[in-house]
Amino acid sequence: MKRRVYLDHNATTPIRPEVLEAMLPYLRERYGNPNSPYWLGQESRAAVEKARAQVARLVNAKPSEIVFTSCGSESDVLAIAGAAQSAFERSRGAKRHIIASSIEHDAVRGILETLRRRGFSISILPVDEHGRVDPQSLRKAIQDDTALVSVMHANNEVGTVQPIRELAAVCRQEGVPFHTDAVQSAGKIPIDFRDIGADFLAISGHKINAPKGVGALVVREGAALSPVITGHQEKNRRGGTENVASIVALGKACELAQSELAAHAKQLSVLRKRLEEGCLKIPRSRLNGHPTERLPGTCHVSFEGVDGFQLVVALDLEGVCASSGPACSSGVSEPSHVLEAMGVERRWSTGSLRLSLGWGSTAEDVECLLEVLQGAVDRLRKVGVSI
Amino acid sequence: MIRIVVAMSGGVDSSVAAALVARAGYETIGVTLRLMPKLETGFGCCGSPKDIDDAKRVCETLGVPHYTLDLAELFESKVIRPFVDEYLRQRTPNPCVECNRSVKFGYLLALARAWGADAVATGHYARLKKGRLYRAADEEKDQSYFLYSLTPAELSKLLLPLGKLSKAEVRRIAHRLGLATADKEESQEICFVPRRDYRAFLRSRASNAAAYEPGEVRDGSGAPLGRHEGLANYTIGQRRGLRLGSFPQPMYVTGMDSGSNVLTVGPREQTFRGGLEACGVSWTVSDPPVAAFRARVRIRHRHAPAQARITPLADARARVDFDEPQRSITPGQAAVFYADDGELLGGGTIDKVIG
Q1: Which residues of B touch A333 (CB under 8 A)?
Q2: Pick from B1, B7, B35: which is nearest to B112 by CA?
Q3: Catalytic residue among A171, A299, A321, A328
Q4: Are B114 and A314 inside 8 Å of each other by CB?
Q5: What is the pLDDT of residues B163-206, one digit of tens each?
Q6: How far apart are CA B268 and CA B328, in angstroms?
Q7: Residue numbers of B between 68 and 127 with CB closer than 8 Å to A
Q8: Interface predicted TM-score (ipTM) of this complex, two decimals
Q9: Distance from the Cα of residue B175 to its chain's centroid
Q10: Which chain A residue shows the shortest CA-CA distance from B5?
């Protein structure tokens, strides 16, 4: 088996052994439905509640504010569709305006498009060259009929972290609910839900070493939210029998992330520094995203005269997993909407490479990548981009 | 380990080509080209979502990696736009030749080399022996005609695993290996033209060109016979859709003149001409002939190669004089030269009809 270097932790992450251990009993003997009255059910219920507390602790929320979902996308959709629906109903149809940034994940863009077709109007906030939203532009965009604002905490492509407290503060002053997609930031940088002052915050399990198929939405106590999947579970906020094993895994992953957060972020920053230095030594290269306000493990670079997807294939054939954009849209050399919103010229955005570090990343991984990167870029530059 | 990139259209032929490469023990990499913008690929051009999905499934069955490569812009500039332009100047282009030249073997081969591949394999029916190109064993399926523009250097980096197989054998292999594409229908006609209606496609691309000006239809002696709907709607040898009323015998398009905007028609015997001049002549052999030589010349796909004398001229041109007049020699199509043993020697684009 050839070596594999995994540098795409923003796409997904390996399941940590401790997390797998924690969830296994709930795939085997502890199969009870947490809603059942007998002991087998009570065991499951206790496990779900323990996980709820673990997730709440990671983001400084109350356990009662955690709603388990099937993934980050569902969390985003629940927050946006649920809050919009609720505001619309409470205002007897008056509130039908939503504001979002121009660099949101497709999960958010998708539900916004759906709501637009259902009669909502959508305002898109610009970002600066580093991918940050100006709180003043948010203030100006808010209208009397604004039902919700959604701005992601950290961007999945370039890793830029938003001035999230300031953005939430504007919304609070204006009395508008605020949602943030924290799928990429949760467990990687400190998040204080209380301090941020958001109403909703989305989390995904598989980005922080839990399995795919579990997520959570943090819902501020008292925030108005109509369910998308109806049912009595999760205090009527999300129906469907709880995915107990995966919820346990998410809880464990949050606990681990929280206890190691500072040390881990520091370690990743060191690796990333070496990674960036190596990448930027290659002629006609540049770094994208905010120079400092950025996720510790995300490195997004561009090489002029190279097709990013072709570079990803070249690296894959050398045993290195990396990305030219979000995993959901790979295979198409269309410019990413994030880079476009940041005003990155096409000659740069075409040649994008996202390298993202995480749990298990080593200095050796970085060296392996750097060993093959220059050669791959040189060879592909001779081929040229196909336009 | 030898690394081979297989160009996979999502059809049965290239699926089996990939299977044969993989089973021969090479490190196999499946690549499907997306040649049309995402939203225009509903009808079966290379890289429609269904074709990409099929190619992926075949690679999953074979246990080899697969990548989809977006070359829509290259395809547009190198194949589609020239296709339209050629029609507008009264030629009948062969986009498959151009696609092979610029996209599949021009760009993809260079990219495959950059990916560390030793060669590119395709599902074309044609044979390679020691770097020389021959017609396929299955005469019915022979596709060597579309490969004439490859250079000796390109041929040395090409694998054609289907060259010795018949279509029936290819399907049998696909069935035996359980490939998802085993029963898939043949692709038809020009891949990027919806519903095989190239006239509608041209009109959608260039509706106000001069080639859409109606004009006169005349016979070989210059006598007016009626009106035509713009020269872009016709091709040499065309019989249907002329709307000339009744004649004692079927009438065919025998010529077009853009200067006078006249379409010339005539009975079948007038469609036969004695020779042609080709431009952009290239050679698949490393020692191209410099003096006149005898060979068989194929002037369109499925045309039975006809004996001729070929005279290489300056500026990558060549003159072809057939022993027997040939029907509907069409400017824009390829004239491809074969030796008697089936070796493909070279070819060019028909520029002028002579004799």
Answers
A1: 70
A2: B7
A3: A328
A4: yes
A5: 999 999 999 999 999 999 999 988 767 888 887 888 888 888 88
A6: 9
A7: 68-71, 73-74, 107, 110-111, 113-116
A8: 0.87
A9: 28
A10: A317
Q: Which of A197, A212, A204, A207 is nearest to A181 (CA)?
A: A204
CB of A253 closer than 8 Å to CB of A264 = no
Active site residues per annotation of B: 99, 191
- Whole-Å CA distances, B59 to A364, B6, B149: 31, 10, 29
B-chain residues within 8 Å CB-CB of A376?
114
Do the chains contact at A314 and B115, CB–CB below 8 Å?
Answer: yes
With tokens 């997609």, the residue in question is A181
Q: Do A383 and B114 touch (CB under 8 A)?
A: yes
**Structure tokens of A373?**
């990167």
Contact list, B107 vs chain A (CB under 8 Å): 383, 386
The pTM for the full model equals 0.91
Per-residue pLDDT of chain B (355 residues; tens, 9 = 90+): 899 999 999 999 999 999 999 999 999 999 999 888 765 544 555 668 889 999 999 999 999 999 999 898 899 999 999 999 999 888 999 999 999 999 988 899 999 999 999 999 999 999 999 999 999 988 889 999 999 999 999 999 999 999 999 999 999 999 999 999 999 988 767 888 887 888 888 888 887 788 889 999 999 899 999 999 899 889 999 998 888 877 888 999 999 998 899 999 999 999 999 999 999 999 999 999 999 999 999 999 989 999 999 999 999 999 999 999 999 999 999 999 999 999 999 999 999 999 8
Say if the Cβ atoms of B34 and A332 lie within 8 Å. yes
Residues of A in contact with B113 (CB under 8 A): 379
